[in-house]
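Standup notes
- DV: blocked on the single-chain target, sequence here:
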Amino acid sequence: MTNEHREHDHDELDHAEHDHEGHLHGHEPSALEPVQHRAEAVALFNAVWEMLDARDRTAAQDDQLIHAAHASRWHWSQAGELGGDQQRAIGEWQCSRVYSVLGRGEPALHHAKACLAICEETGLGDWVVAAAYEALARASVVAGDASEARAWLARARTATAAIAEPEDREVIEADLDSLPILAG
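- DV (later): unblocked, structure below
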């Protein structure tokens, strides 16, 4: 690990300085075509949901869950025109959800903030920004910050009420309803 990576504050909301898209971390770009990256991103995204539904996962399966979520997000970043801002944002949202389910507050917050940053930088709204707020509320609960969780939950409920499509609204409402009860 280089000193540059050790010294970088990964909690910063300013993702322009730490643009995940430009980081190769010593690896050459894939020789896959954009359509292949898209297919891998979709397959891995769906596999993450299957793994999340599994009961009594082992520590090794939890690690696979994390790897699959990150791999899905990475493949979206490599899919060119077949993967846009919405897919990148939802990839960050899914990484946040995985870390929240695993009880890991810091990385859950990191990816929730990244999701919101993409929404803000690109003008994404509707259900995607509502999902970002939901992720921030959930990650805040996991991180033990009830005050922040309540604030993000309020923003999520407001954004959810404004979602145009009833089906999309119902999905986000169900996610909000699944948040652990916030005491105090």
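- Follow-up: Residues 33-177 form a domain with the Serine Threonine Protein Phosphatase 5, Tetratricopeptide repeat fold (CATH 1.25.40.10).
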